[in-house]
């Protein structure tokens, strides 16, 4: 852990999040978990993500939120509500709405740490940073000069989403650094793998609470 906080780093960090309501989040964790249990696990993942972002030397923090009740842990975050449309359109809106360097982080990688995002803050002058996900998507994206046009039209939730998004950036002539690959939590198997990586996380504790006594 560093003792210095480079407050001059002009990076806005935005967490893309949904309100953790039963039946609305982590639906692929059911029926192994109840809808209520899946929502509690999602809330744990979001709590860990917010804590990680709180620890980053960001100039500004934004919760890009689909919901009504802002989660605990979002103190100091500006809330920007998501518009309608597909995910690519919503992300495009975000990257048009924020001025200056913008780092996007999803809520489905509770194992993401400040250390894994440190390259962005070590070299914010780079055109972009891209965090690939194991399932073919991406868990993080940084643009020094945000532009929604670089995201709109990218097919989301597909095995080639990350490849298409990265190609969109490089085809635009951007110099893009690559962050470490992480596993998005989509299935129970994913959740168990990630929980082993961060056993002391809110996510892991929530998952254990839901699976105690289950036969697996």
TrEMBL record:
InterPro entries (alphabetical): Nucleotide-diphossugar_trans (IPR029044), Trfase_1_rSAM/seldom-assoc (IPR018641)
Q: What is this protein called?
A: DUF2064 domain-containing protein
């Amino acid at each position: 852990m560093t003792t210095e906080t480079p407050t001059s780093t002009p990076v806005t960090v935005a967490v893309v999040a949904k309100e953790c309501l039963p039946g609305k989040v982590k639906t692929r964790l059911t029926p192994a978990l109840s809808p209520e249990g899946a929502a509690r696990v999602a809330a744990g993942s979001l709590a860990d993500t917010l804590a990680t972002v709180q620890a980053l030397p960001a100039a500004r923090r934004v919760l890009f939120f689909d919901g009504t009740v802002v989660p605990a842990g979002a103190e100091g975050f500006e809330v920007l509500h998501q518009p309608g449309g597909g995910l690519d359109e919503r992300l495009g809106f975000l990257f048009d709405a924020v001025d200056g360097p913008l780092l996007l982080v999803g809520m489905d990688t509770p194992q993401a740490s400040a250390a894994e995002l440190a390259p962005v803050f070590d070299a914010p002058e780079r055109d972009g940073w891209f965090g690939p996900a194991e399932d073919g998507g991406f868990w993080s994206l940084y643009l020094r000069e945000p532009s929604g046009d670089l995201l709109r039209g990218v097919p989301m939730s597909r095995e080639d989403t990350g490849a298409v998004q990265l190609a969109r950036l490089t085809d635009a002539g951007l110099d893009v650094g690559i962050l470490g690959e992480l596993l998005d939590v989509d299935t129970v198997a994913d959740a168990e793998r990630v929980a082993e990586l961060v056993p002391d996380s809110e996510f892991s504790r929530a998952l254990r609470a839901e699976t105690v006594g289950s036969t697996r």
